[in-house]
Amino acid sequence: MLRSILVASFAVSFLPAAFAQAPAKPAAETPLIERAKLFGNPTRTAGRISPDGKWLSWIAPRDGVLNVWVAPFDKPDEARPLTAEKTRPIRTAFWSPDSKSLLFINDKGGDENFLLYGVDVASGKQTLYTPFEKTRVELVNVSRQVKDRILIGINNRDARWHDLYSLNVRSGELTLVYKNDGYASFVADEQLNLRLLAKSRSDGGTDYFRVAKGKAEATPFVQVGLDDALTTMPLGFTVDGKTLYWADARGRDTAALMAQDVAEGVAKVVAQDARADIGSALFDVRTGRLQAYELDYLKSEYIPVGDALAGDLKTLKDKLKAEFSVMARSDADDKWIVAADPVTAPASTWLYERKGKRLTKLFTMRPELEGAPLVAMHPQEIKSRDGLTLVSYLSLPKGVDASADGGGSARAARPVPMVLLVHGGPWGRDGYGYNSYHQWLANRGYAVLSVNFRGSTGFGKGFISKGDLEWGRKMHDDLLDAVDWAVKNGITTRDKVAIMGGSYGGYATLAGMTFTPTTFACGVDIVGPSNLFTLLETIPPYWESFKQQFYKRMGDPTTEAGRAMLKARSPLNFADRIARPLLIGQGANDPRVNVRESDQIVAAMNAKKIPVTYVVFPDEGHGFARPVNSIAFNAVAENFLAPCLGGRAEAIGTALQASTAQVKQGAEFVPGLQQAGLK
User: Fold this and answer.
1) Order of strands across the sheet with 300-304?
2) Catalytic-residue membership of 503
3) Set 378, 423, 476, 622: catalytic member
C-alpha cells in the first residue's frame, strides 16, 4: 500500500426497502464490449529491446498464460516463447546486462513472495536464482556498465530486512555485499558499488548514510523529514559516480529534479514545476546525465533538457499523435522501444530507430479492441470545499459526451448514472490514459470519475500531508465534493452514484457505505481494509521500515489518541449503518490486506442481517492477477451494478467456471449468479 500498496435482481423480498432501486432505461445503441476483450490476456505487452540491440522481448500468452517471448529485432515474426508458466502469469521481465538472458520475477498465488528467475536466450535453460521459501526479492541495480552481475536484496535471513547480494547472472552465484541490520533500502552506483543506505526515522522520515569501506558513516549524508518522505528520493548516479540525481521537495512544495555534487554535497535545481512533482526522467545511457524529464499534471509529457533528445521527442509526438513513453533503449542508444496510448484506441508498441527517425509498429496490445466504441478521458480540476485542486479524470458513455474535444473539459448531454472509481495506495495517483475500468463502465452506460484526493502523490508534499490522519474524514470529503461537482455539472444525479475501488479504494468504498450510508446507491469493495487496527497488525514484515510512516499518516496504535482515531475510522465498527447493496471481492492470500479484513465485515453484516455478496479467490492476493479471475469478478460486478444504477451488463454466463471464484454468500442478490455454475 505505501508504495505503493479491486437467481434474481435486487428484489424487495430479499432486501430492506432502502436497497430497492428502480432501474433506469439504459442507452442500447452502443455495442457492448465483451469483458474478455477488456480484461483477458493482452495479445502482447511489455515490449523491450536487449542492451546490445539485437533482440526484442515481450510478454504474451502461451497456452493461455502470460509468458516471456523473444525475437530478433529485425525479425519479430520469428518470435518464440522462452518460459512455460502454467498458472501464474508473468507480469514483469527485463534483460540481463549482457543480453544473453531474460530475467523475471513471480510469486505463488498472490503471496508476494517474489522469486527471481533467468532464462538463457540461446538454450532456453531456466534458472531459479533465489531458491528460498517465504522470501521476497528486490531489485537494487541493473547497470549498463557491469555486464555479468546485478544487485538484488533478499530477505531470507530476516523477513523484515533485505540483505544486499551481488548476483552473477551467468553462473547464478550469490555473493553477500551487505548484511542488513535495519536499513530500509540501498543505493548503488553504475559500477555496482554500494554508496548509500537509507534508514527510517522515528518521525516517519528517512536518513541517508554514505558507505565507506563497507560501513555506513555515523552522520547522515541527507536527512528527510516525514513531510518530504514520499517526495524526496535518490534517482541514480552518473556513470562517473560524481553526481547523484534526486527528486527533492525539501525547501519547496513540489519535488524538483536536483543534481548533487557527491564530493561537496551541494545540490542544484535542474528542473521543477509548481504544479506537479518531478520523479522520473530520461538519462544518457552512456554518461548517466539528464536528457529529459517527465512532467505529469493533467497529462504526462517529456520536457527535453538540452538538445540531445529534443528532436527525437518532437518526432515521436508528431508521428504517434498519442501519449507516449520511452520504455527501453539499447546501449548504443540507436534503438528505442516506445509505447503509444491514444486512449480511444488500443495501445501500441513501436521500434524507434534514431538514425533516420524511423518508426516501426511492433504490435497492438489488444487488437481485438480496434474499432471498439472506446471513449475519451477528460482531465478535470475540481475544487474541494476547503480550496484544494483535485486533479480528476472523467469518462462518459458514447452518445452522452458532448465535449468539444476528447482531451479537454467534459460536458454531458444528459445526466447518467456514475461510478466513483477510487484509486489504491492511498499514496498513489490516477493518471490520464487508457483505463480498462473506465472503458468497461462507460460502455455499460455509466459516467466514471477518478479523483486524486488529498494524500494522493504527484502534486506536492503539501497535498500529501493534508491527507495525514484524514482516512475516512477529509480524504473522504474530497470524494464527496467530486460527486457534488458531477451533480452540479449535470453529469449524474445524486441518487445514481456508486462507489468502487481496490485496496485504499476498497476502504473508501466501505467508508462510503458506513460513514455516509445514504450517499451512494451501492458499493464494490476489492481487497479493502475494514479494520485499521488489524490492517496495521498484519502488514508484511518487509514493510517494517515503513511502519512509523504508517503510524504518522494513519494513526498510531501505540498511543491512546491513535487507538481512538483508528477505531473511529474503521468501517467495521459501523457495519450496522450499511443501508445499500455491497459487493466484496478478496484474494485469500493477500499479504497487504489480509482476508480477515473482508471476513470480519461480512461477519458483522451477517450479525445484523444486512445482505452482502462476498466473492473470494483462493489463488489470488492483493488484487486479481489471473485474467480468468478478473473476468469472473467483473462479471459479478457489472451484474451487481446494473439493477442498482440501471446500466447495461453482459450476462455472467460461464464466466466463473474458468476461474477459482468462491461465492461465499449473497449469490441471490446478483442476477445470474446462482445459475453461474459455481464450484
Assistant:
1) 280-283, 290-296, 300-304
2) yes
3) 622
